[in-house]
Amino acid sequence: MARKGLARRVALAVALCIAGAAAPAVAGEAVREAFVTSQLADSVGVVDLATMKQVAEIAVTGKPAGIAMSPQRDFAYVTTPDGNGLVAIDTSARKVAWRLNVGKGPLGIAVNPRTGAVYVANWYGDEIVSVDPKAQQVTHRVKVGRAPSGIAVTEDGTTILSADRESDAISIIDATSFKRTGEIKVGEHPFGVAIEPGGRRAFAANVVSNDVSVIDLGARKVTATVKVGARPYGVAFANGNAFVTNQAARSLSVFRLSDLQPVTSIPVGDYPEGIQATSDGTAVYVACWGDNILQRIDTSTLKADAKAEVSDGPRAFGAFLR
């Protein structure tokens, strides 16, 4: 654990904002695989979800961190903070298709479900960039708050949210004009931001204040704050509940979306980070950095029921199920 502890400190110094909006997999389609970014291994592992075994490993230099799927899930887009890059992986061929320099310290990432545009948060550049994946070029840049981390996009593709960690705020960006149209103050150091099904509210995981800010997107204000475990990182939604990874507590906090009341705390592996729910809501998958595992949570029993060994330093920030 001494090596892991040192590596974690080094990784966090470079990538302290790797958290994100955990979008569900494509509605109506069964997920078969998980593409897990393993930062310390400089790779992306492919996990067969039926057997919970890592069946392939794709070399990706630059300390891969964030990940998002194209609307058709034929490409996985990966951020490489050490390489200032965006990497596109052909998910069927399981190989790198192209790379693009996008700016300083790219980490958070999301894809517009309507247009397919790829949005990347440049931590050191205090900006969000938009990439046209067909043209393989940056098309727009917009300044946001300090140290942007997680990104979320509304279901209709019109609005982008950026969790600006050092500004304790969420930036609102109009996806059409690509202009910043507002800012909402939240808790201390938001990492991940996620939009609940239906798009009425967003949830920001605040890693220092150990809580989740609930944002009314119509009113553009925080309407509630939910206390969770130590160092909350990412948020996912399933079966009417919110699931929050608590890095320092080795747990998931679960609370109801209807009244924001706590349901339970689920023990998981060491340093849980990336989290995503399946589209049918039956399972939630969690990447545990310290134990090098991907865990499955049964959302009916609210217990971890399977795990897969993955490569060193799994982050899996964003949408990683295919």
Q: Mind explaining what this structure looks like?
A:
The chain is mainly beta and 322 residues long. The chain has one domain: Methylamine Dehydrogenase, Chain H (7 Propeller). It is 4% helix and 52% strand. It has one helix at residues 2-15; strands at residues 33-38, 43-48, 53-59, 66-69, 75-80, 85-90, 95-101, 106-111, 118-122, 127-132, 137-143, 148-153, 159-164, 169-174, 179-185, 190-195, 201-206, 211-216, 221-227, 232-238, 241-246, 251-256, 262-267, 272-277, 283-288, 293-298, 303-309, 317-318. The strands form 7 sheets. A 5-stranded mixed β-sheet has the order 7-6-5-4-28, with no helix packed on it. It has a 4-stranded antiparallel β-sheet with strand order 8-9-10-11, with no helix packed on it. It has a 4-stranded antiparallel β-sheet with strand order 12-13-14-15, with no helix packed on it. Strand 1 and strand 2 form a beta hairpin. The two termini are 32 Å apart. The model is unreliable at 1-21 (pLDDT under 50).
CATH architecture: 7 Propeller
Tally of extended strands?
A: 28
The number of distinct helices, counting runs of at least 4 residues, comes to: 1
Structural class: mainly beta
String of helices and strands: HEEEEEEEEEEEEEEEEEEEEEEEEEEEE
Q: Strand content of the residues, in percent?
A: over 45%
Mean pLDDT: 93
The N- to C-terminal Cα distance equals 32 Å
How many domains would you count in the coordinates?
1
Give the strand line-up of the largest sheet. Answer: 7-6-5-4-28
| Share of residues in helices | under 10%
CATH-derived topology: Methylamine Dehydrogenase, Chain H
Shape: globular
